[in-house]
Design a protein that fits this description.
- The chain contains 12 helices and 16 strands.
- It has helices at about 1-5, 30-35, 40-50, 70-90, 110-115, 125-130, 140-155, 160-180, 195-215, 225-240, 345-355, 370-380; strands at about 10-20, 55-65, 90-95, 120-125, 155, 185-190, 220, 245-250, 255-260, 275-280, 290-295, 300-310, 315-325, 335-340, 360-365, 385.
- The strands form 4 sheets. The chain has a 6-stranded antiparallel β-barrel. A 4-stranded parallel beta sheet has the order 4-3-6-7, sandwiched between helices.
- The radius of gyration is 24 Å and the shape is elongated.
Length: about 375
């Protein structure tokens, strides 16, 4: 084994499957035992050697006869986890502007990111983004198609003009071309200007525009948070959903955490209701106003993933599984959900906070801890499981 794998910087997964389910104790001879019933002895030897070479590893034990759903599920999880590494290595992350001023938990060393996780950063100024749609005609067929796509994705609420939706569609088409040209799989952006003139038009439409990119699989994070963009991309890749979130509030009577976020989101997670988009005069914590989008995750299992760093730049995953419950939520235009944790709301907030995550995390429908642990092993990142 060692000559084949010793130069690889990936986990070695030992698929330890026995040919037959049960020995024929009366009739089995040594050839039968070695040929059809031997599945464990050599695995410990292999892991011992992998440990001595400092290599990451995992073991899947099962049986061939009659099929083994556990083995099948484990192999499928490893394949999904491997797609994350491929995405990080074969696409880039864009940073537009800079992180929200003073939010030091969001700051990142791009060289360290490339060294440790293989994700390359491309920097863009807002002047470039304002001009990105200049070459696209209002009569372009792609714009008309995108208008239909926007209406199919959102229930548009409030006092708006259809001409505003056309301008939005034009920018979405331009962004899609930009993502393709720059080979972007992730985007982190924050605008902190005066939001006047052309800049104000674009700023007002960024939330739904980036939501349309998320719908296609490009993770788009607000406040310039590159780490949560990675968490969103990981969950989207392994589960099909990846929603930006943060702690909102606690309902102490129901022992429920209210979790959500303002800004762009993932239409695929809005399984309880069709997403809504509405005009607001003022953005939360930002300059100007424009369109807010709200998504409605379903009741049922939910997974949260945050990515943080220590003082030496080493990354860590922070993970929790919970259950979303039906009940009252905020309706001022932000995505939010009611999540119950096995350890209770108070203890969850204590343990989650003590893990030192950034203040953002990503959310996905379903429980995905097992696959996240495989992603972490592939990327050589430790995992702290809260509950």
């Amino acid at each position: 084994m060692l000559p084949a794998v010793k130069d690889l910087d990936v986990p070695v997964v030992l698929v330890n499957v026995q040919k037959k389910r049960v020995p024929d104790y009366e009739k089995a001879e040594i050839p039968d035992w070695l040929g059809e019933l031997y599945a464990c002895g050599a695995v410990g030897e292999m892991v011992a050697d992998l440990n001595r070479y400092g290599m990451r590893h995992d073991v899947i034990t099962g049986v061939v006869e009659g099929g083994d759903p556990y083995v099948q599920a484990e192999i499928e999880e490893w394949c999904r986890a491997a797609q994350v590494r491929r995405r990080f290595r074969q696409t880039n992350i864009a940073q537009i502007g800079r992180p929200y001023p003073g939010m030091m938990d969001l700051y990142i060393d791009e060289s360290n990111l490339y060294r440790r996780l293989g994700l390359y950063t491309k920097q863009f100024d807002w002047e470039r983004m304002w001009a990105i749609a200049d070459e696209i005609s209002d009569e372009d067929a792609r714009v008309t198609d995108k208008i239909s796509d926007i209406h199919n994705t959102f229930n548009v609420l409030g006092d708006y003009q259809e001409s505003d939706i056309r301008v939005m569609a034009k920018y979405v088409v331009a962004f899609e071309q930009w993502v393709q040209d720059e080979k972007l799989g992730l985007i982190a952006s924050h605008y902190d200007g005066l939001a006047q003139g052309k800049a104000g038009v674009l700023d007002s439409m960024l939330i739904p525009a980036f939501s349309m990119l998320i719908k296609q699989g490009t993770a788009c994070a607000v406040e310039g948070d590159m780490k949560v963009a990675m968490a969103m991309s990981i969950l989207k890749t392994i589960s099909g959903t990846g929603q930006l979130s943060e702690m909102y509030s606690i309902d102490f009577d129901d022992d429920i955490c209210i979790i959500g976020h303002s800004g762009s989101g993932d239409a695929a997670i809005s399984q309880a209701r069709k997403p809504t988009m509405k005009v607001v005069p003022v953005f939360h914590g930002k300059t100007g106003g424009g369109y807010l989008t709200q998504f409605y995750p379903p009741a049922g299992d939910i997974t949260y993933l945050a990515i943080t760093q220590d003082g030496n730049g080493k990354f860590k995953f922070v993970v929790a599984e919970g259950v979303n419950e039906d009940g009252p939520i905020f309706n001022f235009g932000d995505t939010n959900m009611r999540t119950r944790f096995s350890i209770g709301a108070r203890e969850f907030v204590n343990r989650w906070s003590e893990a030192g995550p950034t203040h953002h995390m990503a959310a996905a429908v379903g429980h995905h801890l097992s696959t996240i642990q495989k992603v972490a092993k592939i990327l050589n990142v430790p995992v702290e499981v809260i509950c």
